Prior knowledge:
The chain is mostly helical. The protein contains 35 helices and 7 strands. The strands form 3 sheets. A 3-stranded antiparallel sheet has the order 5-6-7. Strands 1-2 form a two-stranded antiparallel ribbon. The chain has a two-stranded antiparallel ribbon with strand order 3-4. α5 packs across α7 (150-181), α21 (437-443) crosses α26 and α31 (653-676) packs across α35 (739-769). The longest helix has 45 residues, at 36-80. It is elongated. Keywords: Signal.
Amino acid sequence: MWILAIVAFHLVGDILWIPCEFLMRELPSIVNAVDKKSVQFIQNLRETFYVEHCDAMLEEAISHISAAEDWQFKMRAEMRHSDVRDAATSLVVAEMMLKGARIAGVMGDLLRNVLNSSVGPLRMSKAKAYKIFSVVENIKAISHTFAVCRRVLLECCQMACQQWRCHSLHLIDKARLSARESEDACRAAAFHIAIQCLLGSESRLRLCVCGVALEVAQYKQAMRRIDSSQLDALLSRLETLCKIDHIIERVTDCSFLLFHRDLLHIYWDTILDRIPTRQSIDYFTMAISDCIRYTEKSRKPNQMKRFREEMVESVKKGFLTPLCAAIENDLRVLSHQHLVVNERDKSPQENLDFYKKIMSEPEIRLHGLVLNARDFVSCNLQKTFYDLTAVTLHDRHAYSKMAMLAKQRYCLDLIDGMLPNCSIGQSLDVVKIMRSVGEFVSNFNYCLNQQLFIEKTSPNRSLRVLTAEHMADSMRTHGLGVLNTSVNVTYQLLRSKFAVFNQFLRDEHIHAQLQKDIRYFRENLEALKKLYPPKRAEHFNKAFSQLTSQDGEPTYMDRFRMLVTQMGNALGFVRSMSSGAAAVASQMKAYDTIADDIVISESDGDTPLQPLKELLTDLRDQVNKNRDFTKILVEVFRSAFLDDSKYAHLLDFFVAVPALTVNYVEHMLVCRDRLKKRAQHNKETTFTDDGFIMGLAYILTVLKLWPQFTSLNWFRSITKKCTADYEALTEEMKSSKDPRNVHLKAARLQAFEREFKLLSYTFQSARVFFAIDDDIE
């Protein structure tokens, strides 16, 4: 042992007793007899010797770790034996127990000499510090094994002591008989006293009296040498087992770490780099508890409290706070799995398993104080998510997703901050829109393909846009209940618009013109080849476009087109709201399958699971209802119009559709030409107006006029007209002296045809959108 090669003895704390220094300090005459250079040389040599052999002593302590682990394995194996132990087995267990105490004592002595041999501040490498941590953990592992196996050890120690007492009594009784035969009464009496002391239960007092009696009897002279040596060994073992608790406490005490607090801080600062086992952390906290108990002996008030608070702060700063950051980083990586994440940003699987183990066994005990790692991480993540969400409300969904992942991965129950949700491009709020939905459908254009609304005019250089995502964000803020409110508001708006629509078609001039066009088409059906003539639609549009009250105001046909557009915009609003509600409900899809897994028997009675299952079922029904609002709006007006004879004039509307489409195409061409020019403030900037097409398809569906409109073959007629116009332009170009005029006509005709094709495609899409089972041909 290096402790024998280096003459130094650990007394307490960080104090080493070195005989050479003691003699030089207490006997100055020795120092005076030797010159000062020699004394200084010896001191320097001793210090150099300590430094050179510290690593060797630490390596020797490390070499005992395998023996300590083997000893722990054997002790646990003995614990699992349920058979009754005989005397021989008990002796083996007792010897094994003493062996464990010796291993812990050697490791502790070596570690104390390594830490206390430094003259100045303790300096060591990270690898050396890790070895010291490993030695400390194994010392406390031995202490923990003693505590776990205490009941078995006491039984075996009792039987071993009984065996050793029998052997000792046999040897002493043989010496007593020999003294009686030689008529040495005093020696025989002393041996008798020793026998009486060993007949009772062993204690330090009885063994002390027994030893005095044997010395009085001069047992080494009265007994054979081999017998006296054997008796000494037996009595020594008995004395050892009498104070075995004190010995185990002494050899496994790690309170000397109190004087090397930097090591304690380094342990927590490097724990996420080392990734120790969960049990190793418990062993090291037991060593810190030894230090806390040691501070109880201090005469300074509140010394133990201050040191424990220092250790708690070290655990939080060095271990728990970085653990929170690591878990938060892992949650962020999980929530962005749909993106390409750099491998360097991902935590290794070993680290993730360590985090889960800490969360499953979160308690860290420090002598009467329990730190819960799970509660600390939960509070930290809740605060972090709340603060970040408060700064950027559009990220609330991301942090809600991370909270759900924390529950699934680490069993962390995070409390929702109950902050409102919004989008990074937060547009109009749906509640504000519903308060003035009539103004909204008048000032915004609808795009059927993208499901978005674009402002027509704006006093500044930007236009507001409202998408289904914005509506979903509003519903996350206000709840899914606003969807039903939006449908009710839209119904009231459509009801008022249908009243205006009814008045328009009831007008005598309009009704007469519609009847005239219907009669003409039916009478000349074969001559027209079942194609409604575009000239009649153009004539209808021009005739009623001339009707206006003042200059600069929309014409009669423009107002009719705008009425249909507003109705279509209202329906597009309901459609976008339904899409947003579906997006919100899809986030709750994880809870949808839970309802099928809840099984309630009749014997359960009033169980809280029943309301939970009903709530989840209502949630599923709500998600399914989101797709039926359009059909509801169709059926509610269909039943009102078709069941009353006073609305029979509405059935002539299908003949007005061609004229409306012509007016719509001319309007879109004007708007597109305006976009090509320099932008003007407070001017309409329309490039899409699918609300008109939605309105047409909706009205035809409500009035069941699709078969009548289809019989007009309107879009085929427009195609035929464009083909004929192209042929006429070709002939005109051959004979024309001004080709530029012809090119302008050709460009306008091409734009007219392209706009009608776009109208046709969108019209068919809107028809599919409003298709009901009895309308499908």
